[in-house]
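Researcher: Please predict.
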Amino acid sequence: MDLVVLAIAGFIIFGMYKLLIKVADTDTETETVTSPSSLKKTELQSNMPEDATLRRHFLTNLKKEVEEELFPRPTCSTLKRHYDALVLAEVENRLFQ
């Protein structure tokens, strides 16, 4: 019985070790990719107008274009939150292209 418990514990520890190595490899890969948040402020604003009012209208129009291409906004609060995150991600994606 003790040998079986030791074997199971060994498999669990080995599995955790492999999982930690996989997570560490994933973390190092994502650090090399340039994300929009790591760009300089001057690079971020190159696609947007400098005036605050024009920038607000530009972002509103971009959000409206993205929402027109997607499905209708859900009524469930959880789905609304996911929908808003999807719209925001697509707006950022288009903004930084």
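Model: The chain has two domains: 1-33, 34-97.
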